[in-house]
Write a structure and sequence with these properties.
Layout: H1 2-22, H2 32-40, E1 62-67, E2 72-77, H3 90-100, E3 106-108, H4 111-115, E4 131-133, H5 134-144, H6 147-158, H7 161-174, H8 197-208, H9 211-217, E5 221-224, E6 234-237, E7 256-264, E8 268-277, E9 280-289, H10 299-313, E10 314-318, E11 348-350, E12 355-359, E13 368-373, E14 381-389, E15 392-401, E16 407-412, E17 430-435, H11 437-463, H12 469-482, H13 496-504
Antiparallel strand pairs: 1-2, 1-9, 3-4, 5-6, 7-8, 8-9, 10-12, 11-15, 12-15, 13-14, 14-15, 16-17
Length: 505
């Protein structure tokens, strides 16, 4: 029996070995190179947009290019698919720190902050009880991707990392994120910790509005001082190859002002890059990219190609300088040439900082405007003027009610006996006359309307020979009736003698 069992096992083993030797290997799932090629040939949704510039193929499974000031999406490849973000999560952590903390606040590292992270994950070897400032923590987070510093910042703001994760999710909703859920402040693997390229672009756009974020994230290297637990300084290097030549200078780009790297075995490579080109603040997010043996390839080549695509195919256009349908110019209604009315301003003004992003082959007139009125109490915002092109939102501006300011003029009365001289200042009483141009406008409008009605009436009466003598005849008859002898109330003539006699009585 034992012999038969051993014989059967030997046969099965031989069959398995022979089938493995002669069968073709399947690379669709297990071979990284084949998987990378599959991602490279995934469809790019923005290439299907009508009249939209065609974008390059990239090795990232998800990729987006967004213009930060307008929110315009220039390139889209699976931008709303959920992905593991890895350490680009820390951009949200830094954003909340910038919004809630002062840079000189002291942060004390707890036992949980130091020891709850994986030993082989990114850190700068801080100790329990060590004290850093908020600013030092943010440099460590953005440059060295220090996980224990992310934990310490989270606990300093919210008390626990779990409570901080709730703050992260709430802030993501406020920013318009729709497919994001965070469970920690650093991005270490968790199946419930995910986001999208689109949502990360929204988060990064908000962070890039902070000058401190630009300063910290765009720093090449930073020296951390000695602390209460460390008697040696620590040199920290930025790991973003487009900002720092820490390991290679091949991808350095002086238009890049901020960025963050990320990697885990499940997320693969994730990268966020911010650059200014042609007046546009471009945010590039790539997610789930398989690296190669050559440093930075294809992670940074993807980003470089996307930045070149954006700068070569799009331009930024000021709305107030080009809009003619909704523009409200300086009013000439009260410009009489006097000093009182010569500086009149319109009641509604367009924000001059509004822009749209258009393909270089498109004119401003090709964009479709849409006016949406806003009803907000205690606000001078009247409406939002937004634009679309090829069905995509490309920018907006605001219409505001001009602040009603009373202009003041100083009329001085100088006594005849006083003479003004350069050597002797003369104090004279002054009287301020305040003129509300809005009230003046209403009164002038009423008078103008009355004048127009009179002119219209006279013109009609002339054209149609309307007899206005009936009014004079009516007055004559009324006067005759009043002075009739039969009218007891008529006014009788009395001589001066009769008037004196009447007074004596």
């Amino acid at each position: 029996m034992k012999f038969l069992n051993r014989f059967n096992i030997s046969i099965l083993a031989s069959v398995f070995i022979l089938s493995a030797a002669f069968s073709k290997p399947v690379y669709a799932v297990t071979d990284p190179a084949a998987a990378s090629e599959n991602r490279y040939h995934m469809p790019i949704q923005s290439n299907d947009w009508e009249n939209w510039p065609s974008g390059p193929q990239v090795y990232a499974e998800s990729a987006i290019v967004m213009e930060a000031s307008t929110g315009t999406i220039l390139y889209a490849k699976n931008i709303d698919e959920q992905r593991y973000p890895a350490s680009i999560t820390k951009i949200m952590t830094v954003l909340l720190a910038l919004e809630n903390l002062e840079m000189d606040e002291e942060v004390t590292f707890s036992h949980n902050a130091v020891y709850s992270i994986d030993y082989d994950s990114s850190h700068i070897a801080r100790d329990e009880g060590e004290i850093l400032t908020v600013e030092e923590c943010l440099y460590a987070i953005m440059l060295e991707s220090a996980n224990e510093c992310s934990n310490a910042i989270a606990e300093h703001i919210a008390g626990t990392t779990e409570a901080f994760a709730e703050m992260m999710n709430q802030r993501a909703i406020e920013l318009g994120c729709t497919n994001t859920h965070f469970v920690n402040p650093h991005g270490l693997p968790n199946e419930n910790h995910y986001t999208t390229a689109h949502d990360m672009a929204l988060i990064t756009s908000a962070a890039s509005k902070h000058e401190k974020f630009r300063q910290i994230s765009g720093t090449n290297r930073y020296t951390l001082r000695t602390t209460n637990k460390k008697d040696q300084e620590l040199l920290m290097n930025n790991h973003h190859y487009m900002i720092s030549a820490y390991k290679t200078s091949k991808f350095l780009d002086d238009t890049v002002f901020a960025g963050k790297t990320g990697y885990t075995s499940v997320a693969l490579n994730t990268l966020v890059t911010c650059a200014t080109r042609g007046g546009m603040d471009l945010v590039v997010v790539t997610m789930k990219t398989q690296g190669t043996g050559q440093k930075g390839v294809p992670i940074y080549t993807d980003t470089a190609n996307l930045l070149n695509y954006a700068s070569e195919n799009f331009h930024k256009v000021n709305i107030s300088e080009n809009e003619s349908n909704f523009s409200i110019g300086q009013s000439e209604l009260f410009n009489t040439g006097s000093t009182i009315f010569g500086d009149s301003v319109p009641m509604i003004q367009m924000n001059t900082d509004g822009y749209v992003i258009l393909p270089v082959h498109a004119a401003f007139e090709d964009a479709a405007p849409q006016l949406k009125f806003v009803d907000e109490e205690d606000s001078d915002l009247i409406a939002v003027l937004s634009y679309t092109y090829a069905g995509q939102q490309i920018g907006s501006t605001e219409l505001h009610l001009y602040e009603n300011k009373l202009q003041e003029y100083d009329f001085q009365k100088i006594d005849d006996q006083q003479t003004a001289s350069a050597d002797t200042p003369v104090e004279t009483p002054s009287r301020l006359i305040k003129i509300d141009l809005k009230i003046v406008a209403i009164i002038a409008g009423i008078l103008l309307a009355i004048g127009l009605l009179i002119l219209v009436f006279l013109r009609i009466s002339k054209e149609y020979a309307i007899d206005l003598g009936f009014f004079r005849r009516w007055r004559y008859r009324r006067k005759a009736d009043w002075n009739s002898f039969s009218n007891k109330n008529r006014r009788r003539y009395q001589s001066k003698k009769r008037q004196r006699m009447k007074r004596k009585r």
